[in-house]
Amino acid sequence: MPIDWGLPDHYILCMPPHNSTIQEILGPEGTLAHSLEHFEFRPSQLGMAQLIGEAILHGSTAALEAGTGTGKTLAYLVPLVLSEKVAVISTGTKNLQEQIFFKDIPLLSKALGRDIDAMLMKGRKNYLCLYRYRQHFVQPDLLGSETDHIKKKLDAWLKKTEYADRAELPWLRDDAPLWDDLSSTSEQCLGAECMHWEDCYLNAVRRRALQSRLIIVNHHLFFADLMVKKGGFGEIIPRFEVLLFDEAHTIEDIATTYLGESLSSNQLMDFTDDLEKAVEKSHPSEKQSLKQQTNLIRAGAERLKSIFYPMGERGQLEGHTLQAVNTGPLPDIKQGIKHLLDLPLFDTAMDHPFQTFVNRAEDLIRRLEKILSLEDPDWLKWYEMRKRGVVLHASPLDISRELETQLYQKIKTIVFTSATLSTNGNFDYLQSRLGLPEDMVEGIFPSHFSFETQTLMFIPRDLPPPNDSGFARKIASKIKQLLKLSSGRALVLFTSYHNLNLVDQALGKNFPYAILKQGDAPRSVLLEQFRTDTHSVLLATGSFWQGVDVPGEALSCLIIDKLPFDSPGDPLVAARIELIRKREGNPFMEYQLPSAIIALKQGLGRLIRNNSDSGIIAILDIRIMTARYGRFFFSSLPDIPLSHELWDVNQFFDQNP
What we know:
The protein is α/β, with parallel strands linked by helices.
């Protein structure tokens, strides 16, 4: 008797023979059901796995949304493993990479009773560089008991580690500056001239990946590799036959970064610092002649920063600003680098390792000139202020054509999946932004969680719209009321630091529950505190809207201050809007609204992580009720009971303590 999938008929027609094997593994009486103690059969998981099997068999592109709790990782691992093809899984975060490699693959391997030939690959900054490690600890100014203690710990680790991945060092903080001195960028790598080339950990990772059938990377590494291959400079990720993007909703922003050009004042500073250190160790007599030119480059980098300090955090690079850069710091930077390269030190016949600095210098000039001289209506020149300096960018506004050329024409089977890919029940937004083919395979697999009983949505009617001058003050009062009803246990997501800081001040130091605020500690530290202090409250923006996994009581209340529309003041957003207008499209309906819907769905995904979770989602933006577009948000969300009264919230927590 056929299983009722609860899915449209065309998703399950004509399954080829290998799909019966997928059912034997993921079905209600399958291998996993018999071998895993807490395995729960999920029709959506099996249906998704079979669609991926179809896509692999026919060499198709597929877009699959799998709601939280679907079990999408196993849903794609099973058909990928059974295909026996060389496959790459690309994730949005390193956390998911590690979950797949260290948890899901071993679990599946044990259940199947067979080895799964897989390899984890991260960006090169995640691996220790033996050359930089040796160089760092020979510096006389580092002598001391604390340094000796750290070196002994690292030496002991290096005797047993296989790939020297910094994730193996839980005692080293995420923001520890030491790691910057122990790892290397592609610009700093000495390549085949390095004395540690044969023992290089990064090379060991790449050699192992060459032998693997399943390679787990992240989007940053994937698109970095795509650009390396485009330039004809080799490859980072070995060639593959099947590609699966998990957390695919983040692809456009990440791909835009790598398909464009960027250069920061910090890169100029790092170049001069690295060069001076190298010269001091190997050619101290050249130090003085070098110093004059590195100082000129540093001065140019400082002038570059000073131009942007009085301006906003982000903005277009045009008009007077562009002229100020071209006539001010740019000539100094170019002159300093040109005179550097004229020094005898850079005669590669004399001292080949310094060729890496020649390459870096030439690349800095190439990027700087390309960014500043670019004239293309489909690209944007813009700047971004960061803590330590300024970054100049040239970014494509439409990446679909580049993806078509560099990716879709070369790989037959590409699967895009995430908990949040569709808007209003379709994939039109994803299709338009990434240029996916019209005939792609599609599937929406809803979460099996019972949102009707596990959650309640609270939208107060007595708040002003977000553009009201009293909005922040009013939502601060409402948030305080909600936090008292929930006994803390809340993640409060803001669309701006302005509102976050005002609410933080309003809650005050005497609030009965611990207040954790983004920026006060590294992200991982804040999340660990939030998990362990059950009644704490975490105030956050941007990066916390996704990738936060806090199951259980610690996250029982999710509060969202505003519908997460991208700011039209952001230069990339504004330029994309203008490009759609020029093409006679509707930027709000085609771009701004679907982008906000996906962001809201990501936020909601933080609340319910398993069958035993329960909680409130509070949206403090009245526009979801009053604006005509509000219905599109509701039609894209699960069926959640809605209330406008605080007493319903109180009753919910009484029933779900």
